User: Fold these one by one.
Assistant:
Number 1:
Amino acid sequence: MLRTLEPELMLAPDQAQAYAEADFSETDDRFVQRFGQLFGRDFVGEIVDLGCGPGNIALRMARAFPDCSVTGVEGSAAMLDLARKRLAAMPETAFRMRFVEATLPTAVLPMHSADAVVSNSLLHHLHDPSVLWLTLRQVAVRRAPVLVVDLRRPETETRARQLVDACAANEPEVLRRDFYNSLLAAFEVDEVEKQLERAGLYGLQVQAVGDRHLEVFGRMPG
Ligand SMILES: C[S@@+](CC[C@H](N)C(=O)[O-])C[C@H]1O[C@@H](n2cnc3c(N)ncnc32)[C@H](O)[C@@H]1O
């Protein structure tokens, strides 16, 4: 099945709200655990979360890595509004976090300022995926840890519908529609391998995870 693009930014307030209310805790917790497993549970530094949405991963990273500061970067004002409301309810963590409104590619982010870069479920939104890999080159310091997790495109539309029914049976229609469109917009493992090769990111590897995800992990070039 060929890739079908979906809109990059999740701009609609009802869309952002449905996303924020959905329970992604299993995959979100796994993301944070995976970062600790790969790069150490005592990681220290500035972590940048690209396409942070309502802050699911950014807020978890800040809690799990208490000696880190976390910057979430997001192009949708509706998503950022939700992220900032959540942050306001976490005063013990708020001083180590900030959310920046920026649509990638952007010149707003300072060069080589991130000690680690993470991103969850952004890649499939990007019409030109090289934007993510070039942004990593822009913001990350040398040898910075990277963890990118995303959906993996199924082989057929029928399989995509089965995944929506299996994983989001009782979710609102707006979320089910977004999930289906996201599966069709996602990449296959070998496509991401080619993207990394073109970007010269030889320290990063990609692998399939479970029935619908892929992960890219490793370190930026030295
Ligand atoms: C599926 S959500 C994932 C949100 C978050 N990372 C999480 O794991 O919950 C994808 C997010 O990426 C944002 N996004 C898409 N394209 C973007 C771009 N070019 N620049 C910045 N944000 C973008 C969307 O607005 C949306 O909030």
Number 2:
Amino acid sequence: MRSLTAPELLGAWEAGHPHAAPGRALALLCSAWPEHSPGELARLPVGVRDSLLLALREATFGSRLVGLVPCPACGEQVELAFGVEDVRVAPVSPPPEVLSVDQEGHAVRFRLPDSRDLAAVMARSGGHGQRSLLSRCVVEASREGTLMDAGALPDGVVRAVAEAMEAADPQARVELATTCPACGHGWAATFDIAEFFWREVEAWAQRTLREVDALARLYGWSEERILAMSPWKRQRYLELAGA
Ligand SMILES: [Zn+2]
């Protein structure tokens, strides 16, 4: 896995910013894997997508991850510092295209959620997250051999389907055991690489644009030329100019 170059990162930032989280993650993947069509990348199961994002993040910004999460008990911002290896799950490769669950007289055939499903569920206001995601992914549901609507599946079967999805695509859900230093509360904090990586890209892009702006004003260089320089060299020029 190679690192994204400065022009590629800025391009992905520009392409992703009008979109919600699933579209942003796709913009990063499209930039790193131009040989695959956006449609192909959008159909990757979420956990497979997240493995790629994690590898891309490691190649681009390194393997250390530092973030803040609010303590659910007292609200204190708790720092989480960990390595890519702490959140990387060994892949169940390749995840099956269609899975099935047989429970409480119900038979359900379903596929794993992908970026299209996440985007559709997010776009629906007040959608019942897990249920609408599941309904989109059910290929066929039946009770005692009679076809039925996925929306009418009992809660126990819905849970079994969700568990089977998680087992087949484990990177889609990552939790970190966390303890609040202020109140001692312990909980499992969810880590979302798509959201985390995008926030970093955004901060990096803002910083880089400021550098391009300052150097272009000072020396009249093009964006292309400034981006081709290493960050280290850009800093040296900015220092020399007293900017
Ligand atoms: Zn706390």
Number 3:
Amino acid sequence: MEKKTIRIYKEDDVEIELTQIIKQLNETSEYLTFVKGKSKLSIETETLTHRKSLEDLESIQSNESTDNLLTLFITNKPYDDNYFFHGIKNHRKERIFLLSLAHWDSYTTYSKNTGVFYFIVDILALGLDETNDRHDKDKTTKCIYNFMQKKSEIEDGIKSATICDSCQERIMDEEDETKSKILNDIILLLEELKKSNSYNDIVEYWSLSSNEQVKLFFSYAHEDREYLNEFKDYVKIFERNGLVEQWDDNELVVGEKWDSKIKDKIYSADIVIFLLSASSLASDYIYNHELKVAFELNEMDEVYVIPIIIKDCLWDMTEFSEFQILPLDGKAVNSWRLKEEAWTSVARGLKKAIDNIIVAKQENIKSAEDIEVEDKIFFDTNKILFDDKQDLTETSKYKIVLKFLKTYSRWWFNIPRIINWGSERNGFSELKKFTNDELKKILQELEKENKVQSKKSSKSNNLLYRAV
Ligand SMILES: [Zn+2]
């Protein structure tokens, strides 16, 4: 069945992250498709007049629309009457809406991003039930059709983010498949809105929740490639649920050197998985590089090193014996009567490690909000040479590093880990701009100030740092 498109335009001065909003709308919906309008939206008049303003915009819409379900124009300009939005139908019976975010802050503490997400769902809901409009008989249902009689009700509408059973029943139409599919999407979108409720900005919520994704790095001998492929079918479920992001070296040419690309990947991983066989144990490459880094990571924080025994080998006579191995009883995957049982057992073991890491990250996200770093220059920065091309001031560089280490204060970090893993944490993307040397100087200075402590890694001799 053909999908329905919702096309969205905004004026330049509307401070919302429309690309992010559209991306999430599309990820959440199963039927509807949301797109950003290509033409530029610019409204000439200072004040909007319901029908007149919409008719002016019809030409923009007809330039590029093909069977849109609806078109939405977003502006900061106020209406001459008291509404957030107005809609009309064009000659093709498509609905056009104009949404005004004027004086938004006086009606709610939620951000405009959250507001736009809510309005889109609200407008879709109204479109499904044009005859009944809002029902205000029973406010206790907290239904989306209860709200918006007054502008101040926007806050309640966003907070409850629900559609009551009787409205669902009324709207559900077995005959009209399109209607039922849109209703289903509305329910999914409201659930998404509800999950974001404790944040005033829904885009901030998305960025925090995407940080919970666990990164997997696979290390294996090329001879064992088929085992990796088999296992990935099990990991796929975790990937689809948004729990993990996986990476292995199949993009690299065999024999290619241990390069910075692999190094960065392994330093940003949360779980490093080794597929063990006689071949992988014999690989100098794996032993000298990947294993060394994995050990160092394991010493620093809650990175999990998970050896999976795929074929019988002498793993117990190597460093891998220090780790919890999978399958749990140490019986190699290829010696199980049914390989599927072996992989299922391995996948369940991996899931436990993923859950532990997600919990640890969430705990840290909560505390990160409370951490303040004093706003002063800690020391004489003149003696430290920085790359002047960067747009960060020296003071802010120290503050970012210190704030990062304080946020994740129970873990040790080496320099590449701060740059690669740290820069992927919410609020710390600037860490990617640091060079190794620069970061080293900052850490040394912070240590002199007793704000940071260091120790030598017993595995690699590299220095590891932690906030005091
Ligand atoms: Zn209702």
Number 4:
Amino acid sequence: MTNTYVYAIGDTLYINLTNECSNVCEFCVRAMRDDYEGYDLWLEKEPTAEEVLAAIPQGDFAQVVFCGYGEPTCRFDVLKRVATALKGRYRLRLNTNGQGSLINGRDITGEVALLFDEVNVSMNASDAVKYDDICHSRFGKAAFGAMLEFGKSCAKKGVKTHFSVVDCIGEEEVEACRVLAFQSRVLFKVRKFIT
Ligand code: SF4
């Protein structure tokens, strides 16, 4: 099988570094091992930074997004090397579950802020219990607070930061998350649930 390290959708290039994630979300396409937009994103081998950079096609892209099947900050060293090589050529966005500082055992938001123009943090729920019910983080209930701090810290450091939720969590919960994002001084967006 082919390992898809980069893939393009429209004018955006996506980077897929890992299958690994600290969460096991109920709605994750990764858990179902489904194709995404026609791409098989399951990796038999995780890439080096050089392999990712070699796989990037020629062309103009409006932005490069680190997301992939798994959580990109699980491979933070590779992520940083790729982002450093691309910085200045493209607008860079990180899509993350916001647990990168827990995953790496230190606050990584300073390094993220130096490299990325935009960060999207999946909020998914309005409190730690609901978050744990949906996301089943290996960090348990500590994951929710760490996720909030991650988003707040990126925003404070000047990165355009959004908290996001998937619309399948229900209107009431979406509104509770919107309020929490507002109180955290972080932008907010609702994403469509991908079936
Ligand atoms: S955080 Fe993202 S990659 Fe990880 S399990 Fe949830 S939806 Fe999947």
